[in-house]
Design goal:
globular; 33% helix; single chain; 6 strands; two-stranded antiparallel ribbon; alpha+beta
Amino acid sequence: MRQRRRYIAFELVGSRASKGDIMRAIGHSIHTRSPAFDWRMLKLVFHDVSSRRGLLRCGHRQVDELKATMANIKKIGGVEASFVILGISGTIRAAKRKFLAPA
């Protein structure tokens, strides 16, 4: 059976990191925290450098583990930074409308 997708909306605090830096930081943190993590669903779908916001796709069973991993990250690309999780949604459209729309 196909796994349901979830989209985690986040904001970076303290750094203007690139997509590669974000994925390396998350990947390293997940690998050290839980080596049995299912990587197939994990993808950085959207990232806006100017607003420091983005969307990360994962499976519905991985949401809690990924949120805990993101909360523990203290450095991204060698610069002190952290993630603030804005919310979780089942579709990209709803996530952008709810959490990434300009204030």
